[in-house]
Amino acid sequence: MHPFRLQSLLFLGIGVCCLSGSMMQAADVSFRRDVMAAISKSGCNLGTCHGNATGKGGFKLSLRGQDPAWDYAALTRDISGRRVNTFAADESLLLLKGINKMAHEGGKRLTPGGWEYTTLRDWIASGLPDDATKAPRLTDLRVSPMEQILDNGQSQVQIHAEAIFADGSRQDITQRAVYEPLQNGLVEVSHDGLVKKLQNGEASVLVRYLDRSIAIRLTFVQNRPDFVWGHPRQENYIDRHIFTKLKSLRVNATTPCSDTAYVRRAWLDLCGFTPSEADAKAFVADQRPDKRARLIDTLLSSQAFADFWSMKWADILKVEGRTLDKKGMGLFHEWIRDAIARNQPMDAFARDIISARGSTYHEATSNFYRANRTPVDRAIATAQVFMGTRLQCAECHNHPFDRWTQDDYYNWAAAFRSIDYKILENKRSDKNDQHEFKGEQVVFLNPKLSVQNPRTGDTAAPRFLGGPAPTTTKDEDELQATADWLTSGANPLFAKSQVNRIWYHLMGRGLVDPVDDFRITNPASHPALLDALAAEFVKSGFDLRHIIRQIMLSRTYQLDSIPASPQDADPINYAFNAPRRLGAEQLYDTLHTALRVRPNFSSGDDCLRVAQLSGPVGGRGSPDPTSAEAFLAEFGRPKRQLSCECERAGETSLSQVIQLMGGPVFQRALTAKYNFLTTLAKRNETPDKMVRTLYWTLLTREPTAAELPAMADFLTKAKDPRLALEDITWSLVNAKEFILRR
Fold first, then answer.
1. Is the separation of the CB atoms in 332 and 313 below 8 Å?
2. In 257-365, where does DSSP find H-type helix?
3. pLDDT of residue 735
4. What pLDDT was estimated at residue 618?
5. Which residues contact 666 (CB under 8 A, 6 or more apart)?
6. Which positions of the chain have pLDDT values less than 50?
7. CA distance 443 to 373
8. What values do phi and psi take at 178, rounded to 5?
């Protein structure tokens, strides 16, 4: 019996023996196993209810029951005796509000006679026993089915769940587990785990019990009695995984793309701009069967590839001028580009960054820590960039959708605790901007620094995320040990997250999507393929180009952008290569490369393409609306303030349309006195040939039989050929075909 209740009974002269009947009635109710499960099943500890950071109505529980000790105290430390009334259990506010007999903002959460109500009532009547030292620990949660494809009209499936405890006991907890659909509108799940289809597709359901959770995947297949599998040719293991799943889903892959589509796609994906007319025509005319492999090898060894793919890394490593200053930004970008250009193994690339220290003007990689100023910032950035894991939710409580606890979060942050800064100079231009630095800094290790765990109030002990504590030697400190563990086989998330990021850049979405959000509630669309790619990555010596080459040579990558049929339009499972808008840099560089106009950047950098820039240098203000930077911002170029691919915007907007229809950047390039149109107009070529040249230059294809005569006739009748070429160029740039990577 709770001490406060016992004292109350003795004070009132009531013998404890008079309650023995109710105590005996519920003697086997376990707070840790039964009461906590009943509270979770009722939804009382969700973030929208009493699991909120500030609670509700003065009553706060731990989010999703992650801290049973807290919840026991919250339920029992009620001096008024109203919330849990051991004298008259049925009069407890916990029950009266739960059955909506008293006003309750959360509505009805309990049903009289239901197991949740009965469990809570019996626990209260038995004197609020706490079995913290007696209850066997939950060691495993097993759920079936874990993955199932339902076809032939199957519209529902029953989930079964079993709990296994440390004492060897097992319990069927199908009725006690909590079931949460992870996608809206695909399925609905009953209180007891019966899943019903709302529409066809892949649905994930989270199954929770106590401190364990598992995500299962159910696929409801469209009924296609006339479906015939197309037997597409498999170029490598990637296709085997993709096509096996498509066949099980009764979805056919589309046909391979044309040579013109492939050469444009490959140049955009590897170099960030479209090929010239000469390069595109030479590829199409090439009759060698391995010409696509040859093209990939040529582009991978190009300077443009190093420029474009180093830009991708600079984005997530936060290479920008406000925090790093222009010199530090330039040095860090130059180091990244050099690493990509010489194909440095990606594990060594990561180790060099994580173990960095020294002057930000002499040791380029130390700028990673200049951009991440606190232990938690470093922990979050490292996990997100090199493990594909978002930890932010674990800062204030255990992660509600993953296995990471608040202790994991602060112990991981403690691995970066000793990093300190010596600011040699700071000529800040904005005195109110505490994130702006202009001047040299030295990153060094200060063993006196520590990280406090706010949950316990104690100093956090350094531990690898999901791993052991760092071990050091006289030749290796904790930071170097962390870098070694991060890229070792002990941390499989490194290889998986890196190949997933490569897949994302080439295919438009990750196998795990969002690309940097690996968690149990966000499973991979093709887990076996992700494992195979990661294994190949490790086997290759963490070779970035090797994985890029394998993906681009797969038939999956080479599929057309038009589905085989409306029923086969499945972008999530890669039945076709879904079109997507060009990125800001791709669009800007393609425009200026095609029109042969030298860019004009506010930073004053003398670069031919955006991808060659070190990074944005502006402060907090908006760029000049007529500048290249404003154009890039409009089309989603990230400010590099987050270690997240999500900072780059890929959606379309009306303002983007205005930029291409009459914006200053495009208009300057279009009307530049000595651009490519001036050269073309002076070639003394036939209208047909000039039109063909523009189509190959801007759209990477021949004009159709309908387009060519119409455009040529317009050009023939024009009084000013140069202005007519501008009009044709304007129309092609504003075509969907130009702004889409297809």
1. no
2. 259-271, 277-285, 291-300, 303-316, 321-341, 346-354
3. 95
4. 67
5. 591, 631, 659, 660, 733
6. 1-26
7. 10
8. -105, 135
Kindly state the tokens that stand for 287. Answer: 């009759």
Backbone angles phi, psi at 75, to 5 degrees: -80, -30
C-alpha to C-alpha distances, 248 to 185, 235, 240, nearest whole angstrom: 22, 19, 12
Predicted confidence at residue 45, as pLDDT, reads 83
The C-alpha angle 564, 568, 573, rounded to 5 degrees, equals 115
pLDDT of 25:
46
Helices 259-271/291-300 angle, 10° precision? 20
SS3 content of the chain, % helix, strand, coil (to 5): 45, 10, 45
3-state secondary structure of 546: helix
Q: Which long-range contacts (CB under 8 A, 24 or more apart) does 254-257 make?
A: 254/559, 254/560, 254/562, 254/563, 254/564, 254/568, 254/575, 254/576, 255/559, 255/560, 255/564, 256/555, 256/558, 256/559, 256/560, 257/558, 257/559, 257/560, 257/561, 257/577
* pLDDT tens readout for residues 197-231: 998 888 999 999 998 888 999 999 988 889 999 99
Helix, strand or coil for residue 595? coil
The CA distance from 245 to 573, in Å, is 8
Dist CA 714 CA 615 (whole Å): 42
Task: Report d(CA 81, CA 437) in Å as an integer.
Answer: 57
Q: What is the Cα–Cα distance from 534 to 134, expressed in whole angstroms? A: 43
- At 621 the pLDDT is 63
> Cα 273 to chain center, whole Å?
25
β-strands 194-197, 187-189 pairing: antiparallel
Tell which residue, 75, 203, 59, 165, has the closest CA to residue 127: 75
Task: Report the run of H or E that residue 205 belongs to, with start and end.
Answer: strand 201-209
Phi, psi of 401 (to 5 degrees): -125, 10
pLDDT at 401: 77
- Counting every residue written for the chain, the total comes to 742
Domains for the chain: give ranges and CATH numbers: 3-125 (no CATH), 138-220 (2.60.40.1080), 259-305+495-578 (no CATH), 345-490 (no CATH), 581-741 (no CATH)
Cα separation, 660 vs 667, in Å, equals 8
Q: How far is residue 715's CA from residue 348's CA, in Å, rounded to a whole number?
A: 56
Going from the C-alpha of 197 to that of each of 103, 150, 151, 573, the distances in angstroms are 35, 10, 11, 19
Residue 72 sits at φ, ψ, to 5 deg, of -60, -45
Q: How far apart are CA 698 and CA 274, in angstroms?
A: 8
Q: Which helix (H) or strand (E) is 218 found in, with range? A: strand 212-220
